[in-house]
C-alpha cells in the first residue's frame, strides 16, 4: 500500500470553524487517499514530493540524531558518527513496496539514480501467496526460523560440496535462489513455510544490497544508507543486505541503516511546513519510547541487535505557527 505519511497540526490545535483544514502529506497515498480524507474528515492534503521528503527526512535525521546511523554485521550493531561537514554525497536506498536509490549531494540536492521493482512489496506479496501467511509480521517471524538451504541451490550443491575458490565463491554461497525447487520433485506443500520465507527474504535483500552497491560504485559514493518500512529493524534483513554490500565491494563498502528507517517521508513532509513559512521548527529528543521501539521491542526477533532498547528515543518535533 502506498504510504500516507501525514503529520497534522489541525488535530492538535483544531481548525477554526468554517476554515479549511489542510495538512501535509507525501507518497502515493497523498494522491490515492486525497478524496477520502476530504470526504470523511474534511481535510485537504497538501501534497509534498515523495523524493524531496525522503531526502529532507534523511538529511535531518543524520544531522540531528547522534545515534541515527549504524552498521550491522554478524549480529553486531555499531553506531556510526556522522561528520556534518562530510555527510555528502551519499546514497539513500529507500525500501518500501518498491525501492528507490537516491544520490544525495546536499540539502535539497539529489537525483534518483536507480530503483528496483523487487522490494518489500515483492517479499510480502510473493510470501503471502507461497506461505499463506496472514500478516507481514507473521512472514517475517517465519523467516527467522527457516533454513534457506533447503530451497536455495548453493555453490556446493553444484560443485559436489566444494568451494569454487578460483572465482571466490564458497560452497555456502547461494548459486541460485529457489534453485533446488527445480530438481527436488517436490510440490509447494512439501516445503516448510519457514524455509520459503527465509529464501525469499534472502533473495530480495541480497538483490537490493547488490544493486545498491553497484549504483554507489557507479557514482563513486562511499556511504550507502538503507531505510524504508521493509527493514523494520529485522536482524536477518539487515545482515543479508550488509553481507551483499560487503561481498560485492570486496569489503570496501559498508551498508548503514537508520534507526528511524520507516519515517523519512513523514518527517520530510512535516519539515516542509518550515519551507512554507512556518518558522521555528523545534526539534528535541524525548526519552519516551517511539513507535519504532514498540514493534522492535515487543518481539524477540526485532530486539535491537545488541540489546540497546533504551537507546532508542523518539524524536519530538513541534512547529510554532506564525
Ligand atoms: N505491518 C506491515 N504490513 C505490511 N507491510 C509491511 C509491514 N511492516 C513492514 N512492511 C513492509 O513494508 C513495505 C511497505 O513499505 P512502505 O509503506 O514504506 O512502502 P510504500 O510507501 O507502499 O512503498 P513505496 O515507497 O514503494 O511507495 C511492505 O511491502 C512490506 O514489505
Ligand atoms: C514508485 C515508487 C517511487 C513509489 O514510492 C517506488 O515504489 C519505487 O521506487 N519503485 C521502484 C520502481 C523502479 O525504479 O523500478
Automatic annotation (TrEMBL):
BP-aspect Gene Ontology terms: coenzyme A biosynthetic process
Assigned keywords, A-Z: ATP-binding, Coenzyme A biosynthesis, Kinase, Nucleotide-binding, Transferase
Catalytic activity: (R)-pantothenate + ATP = (R)-4'-phosphopantothenate + ADP + H(+)
Gene Ontology annotations for the cellular component aspect, listed alphabetically: cytosol; nucleus
Pfam families for the chain: Fumble
Kinase found in the keyword field: yes
Gene Ontology molecular function: any one: pantothenate kinase activity
Domain of life, source organism: Eukaryota
Transmembrane segments annotated in the record for this chain: none
Pathway noted in the entry: Cofactor biosynthesis; coenzyme A biosynthesis; CoA from (R)-pantothenate: step 1/5
Record keyword Transferase present: yes
InterPro entries, per the entry: ATPase_NBD, Type_II_PanK
Broad class of enzyme this protein falls into: transferase
Enzyme Commission code: 2.7.1.33
Protein name: pantothenate kinase
Species per Swiss-Prot/TrEMBL record: Prunus avium
Taxonomy of the source species: Eukaryota, Viridiplantae, Streptophyta, Embryophyta, Tracheophyta
Amino acid at each position: 500500500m502506498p504510504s500516507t505519511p501525514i503529520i497534522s497540526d489541525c488535530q492538535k490545535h483544531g481548525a477554526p470553524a468554517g476554515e479549511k483544514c489542510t495538512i501535509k502529506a507525501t507518497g502515493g497515498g497523498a494522491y490515492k487517499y486525497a478524496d477520502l480524507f476530504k470526504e470523511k474528515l474534511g481535510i485537504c492534503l497538501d501534497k509534498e514530493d515523495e523524493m524531496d521528503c525522503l531526502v529532507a527526512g534523511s538529511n535531518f535525521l543524520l544531522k540531528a540524531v547522534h545515534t541515527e546511523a549504524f552498521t550491522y554485521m554478524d549480529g553486531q550493531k555499531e553506531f556510526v558518527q556522522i561528520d556534518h561537514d562530510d555527510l555528502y554525497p551519499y546514497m539513500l536506498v529507500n525500501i518500501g513496496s518498491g525501492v528507490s536509490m537516491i544520490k544525495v549531494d546536499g540539502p535539497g540536492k539529489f537525483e534518483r539514480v536507480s530503483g528496483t521493482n523487487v522490494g518489500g512489496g515483492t517479499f510480502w506479496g510473493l510470501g503471502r501467496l507461497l506461505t499463506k501467511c496472514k500478516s507481514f509480521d507473521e512472514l517475517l517471524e517465519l523467516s527467522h526460523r527457516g533454513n534457506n538451504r533447503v530451497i536455495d541451490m548453493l555453490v556446493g550443491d553444484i560443485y559436489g560440496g566444494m568451494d569454487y575458490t578460483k572465482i571466490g565463491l564458497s560452497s555456502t554461497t547461494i548459486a541460485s535462489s529457489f534453485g533446488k525447487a527445480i530438481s527436488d520433485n517436490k510440490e509447494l506443500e512439501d516445503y516448510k513455510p519457514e524455509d520459503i520465507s527465509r529464501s525469499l527474504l534472502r533473495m530480495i535483500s541480497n538483490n537490493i544490497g547488490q544493486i545498491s552497491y553497484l549504483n554507489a560504485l557507479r557514482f563513486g559514493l562511499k556511504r550507502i544508507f538503507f531505510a524504508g518500512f521493509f527493514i523494520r529493524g529485522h536482524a536477518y534483513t539487515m545482515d543479508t543486505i550488509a553481507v551483499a554490500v560487503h561481498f560485492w565491494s570486496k569489503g570496501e563498502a559498508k551498508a548503514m541503516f537508520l534507526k528511524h528507517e520507516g519515517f523519512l517521508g513523514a518527517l520530510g513532509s512535516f519539515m516542509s511546513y518550515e519551507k512554507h513559512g512556518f518558522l521555528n521548527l523545534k526539534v528535541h529528543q524525548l526519552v519516551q519510547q517511539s513507535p519504532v521501539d514498540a514493534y522492535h521491542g515487543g518481539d524477540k526477533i526485532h530486539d535491537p541487535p545488541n540489546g540497546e532498547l533504551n537507546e532508542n528515543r523518539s524524536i519530538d518535533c513541534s512547529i510554532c505557527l506564525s
